[in-house]
Design goal:
Elements lengths: L1 H18 L4 H19 L3 H12 L5 H6 L6 E10 L2 E7 L5 H14 L1 H9 L5 H10 L8 H11 L23
Antiparallel strand pairs: 1-2
Helix pairs in contact: 2-3, 2-5, 3-8, 5-6, 7-8
């Protein structure tokens, strides 16, 4: 009887844990409108906002994304404390009120920080490839394959379709690619 109870408890906890994980498709569906809105406000392509967020946060499943709404691994000026698995974690990463706030801060960094701001003057919101290479070139990530990872996500899930003109009626009805 104890073994049966233990098996049921383990199965239930596994189901609950897997139910809380975001899939790429669920992440895209949940945040595509925010990324499109950011694109129209700032000129940073929606595909870049989503692609970088998906890569950096593991589709919102990373500890930073779960506990701090930090989708991009952005550091702040203060120390934040949160609990993970009943342990206190001290971190220098920024805490955001929402995922949308994290998206806005990423776009602000891309358009206002000196090292990135020139890209918004040189590139359109249709040039996601130029943005990915420019972000890497200007020091966002040290991994020399970073832009390839982000571009792979954008192409695999056809995130570039969200970069269309605001008058394009098909942009909200994009068929998401399957794994």
């Amino acid at each position: 009887m104890k073994k049966l109870l233990l098996v049921l408890l383990l199965a239930t906890s596994c189901l609950l844990a897997s139910a809380q994980k975001n899939t790429p498709q669920s992440y895209i569906e949940q945040f595509k409108d925010d990324a499109i809105r950011i694109m129209h406000e700032t000129g940073v392509p929606a595909s870049i906002v989503l692609g970088v967020a998906m890569h950096e946060s593991g589709c919102g499943n990373s500890a930073l994304a779960q506990h701090l709404n930090n989708q991009f691994g952005v550091k702040g000026n203060t120390h934040i404390v949160y609990y993970r698995r009943k342990k206190m974690v001290h971190t220098a990463y920024k805490r955001y009120e929402s995922v949308y706030d994290s998206f806005q801060d990423f776009a602000r960094i891309m358009t206002e920080r000196t090292e990135f701001s020139g890209m918004s003057l040189q590139l359109t919101h249709f040039d996601y490839t130029g943005w990915a290479h420019g972000i890497q070139k200007h020091g966002y990530a040290s991994d020399h394959k970073w832009s390839g990872y982000v571009l792979g996500i954008i192409k695999k899930y056809q995130l570039y379709l969200f970069d269309e003109n605001p008058g394009d009626q098909t942009r909200g009805q994009v068929q998401l690619a399957k794994n």
